[in-house]
Amino acid sequence: MLKRTISLLLCAAMAASLLTACSRNGQQGSASSNGSQSTSTPVDPDPQSDVLRFSAMSGPTGMGAAWLMSGKGDEGLKLTSEVVADNTAIKDALISGSVDVAAIATNLAATLSTKTDGSIQVLAVNTLGVLYVLEKGDSVHSMADLKGKTIYAVGQGANPEYILKHLLVQNGVDPADVDIQFLSPQEITAKMASSESGICMLPVPASTALMMKDQGVHVAVNLSDAWEELGEGSLPQGCIVARTQFIEEHPDQVEAFLREYEKSIAFMTAEANRSEAAQMVAELGIAPNDKVAAMAIPQAGLTFVTGEAMRTMLENYFAVLFEANPASIGGSMPYDSFYYGVD
To answer: DSSP string of 9-23?
Structure first.
């Protein structure tokens, strides 16, 4: 089993990626958040037994797989893949069995496992915190400064909402004392453009794109830093999951996929590969274009954590979500069998 850990922590915020990976407001199908079609190989609904069908959410959750999805991996691993921008589509594909392995939000993984009686397992954490509070002005320097303010935010009913409210409470702010307006990334961008002193919460690469578009917008609070200041460990927002039946029937393919995915993360996070990696991300429709991708990749929290380290990281995070709202992870903490490679 793989038990190596490669981690890259970062800073920035938003996109139709982790956002879409965490948010309920997604677009249908295998199109990226900016409307372009995925250039990856469409997932075969009825493949041969030696073909692994992979699906990834657009945005940070899918960035780490760009090298692998671009056909750079070991030819011994037969892979079909697609990028989707809708939680529902990827969830339904896992449940129906038309996808074997997927890159999704961590709370969705826990919910799916609980709601389907353990039909999926988590293989690795692939994305750490990518949420940021952005401001057009200079009034916010900490979570406590959000009291009495209006903030435009993504991810109602998903990871972003629970993270934001938990950080507010832990910094002495009642969420009721903050006017949180949940909007789509596009709506937030428009609000910030028309405001002289707007505040928002976005994930990479949407946050990256907004700051590139409007130079008056800057990072006010890195939510990953705020989370770690609470002593609750890292903020795991994205992961790789697989259907339990597929794991049981094709253990060698699962191990081969993890080896190649680890190589993909290593390539995508190497500074020397930044230009090529950005081009891959853009071509797959994971980010709007290669310029945004080049700035977003080092801020996207790409990582590869498996085994006990993965379990500890996720259990700490799920405990916080469960306390905030049990429904956020399906109503109960995941069983031990949820964690692949852990005895």
So the answer is: -----B-SSHHHHH-
Residue 254, classed as helix, strand or coil, is helix
Type of residue at 275: S
96 exposed, middle or buried (CB, 10 Å; 0-12, 13-18, 19+)? exposed
Split at pLDDT 50, 70, 90, the class of 50 is confident
Cα separation values, 159 from 4, 65, 251, Å: 26, 21, 30
Q: Are strands 218-222 and 302-305 parallel, antiparallel or unpaired?
A: unpaired
Report in angstroms the alpha-carbon separations of 181 from 98, 153, 184, 209, 305.
Answer: 36, 6, 10, 20, 34
pLDDT computed for residue 84 by the predictor: 92
CB contact at 8 A, 202 and 132: yes
In which band, very low, low, confident or very high, does the pLDDT at 46 lie, cut at 50, 70 and 90? low
- Residue 121 gets the label, from left (phi > 0), alpha (psi -120 to 50) or beta, of beta
* 42 — pLDDT class (breaks 50, 70, 90): low
Amino acid identity of 323?
Answer: E
Distance CA 54, CA 191 (A): 36
The single-letter code of the amino acid at 29 is G
What is the number of alpha carbons within 13 Å of residue 56 lying toward its C-beta?
35
- For residue 18, the Cα-to-chain-centroid distance in whole angstroms is 4
Neighbours of 46 (CB within 10 A): 7
Would the pLDDT of 312 be above 50? yes
pLDDT tier for residue 19 given thresholds of 50, 70 and 90: very low
User: Could you read off the pLDDT of 140-175 as tens digits, one per residue?
Assistant: 999 999 999 999 999 898 889 989 999 999 999 999
Beta-carbon neighbour count of residue 141 at 10 Å?
A: 10
Tokens of 322: 């469960």
Considering the entire predicted model, what is its pTM? 0.83
Find residue 201's DSSP bridge partners: 133, 153
103: amino acid identity, one letter: A
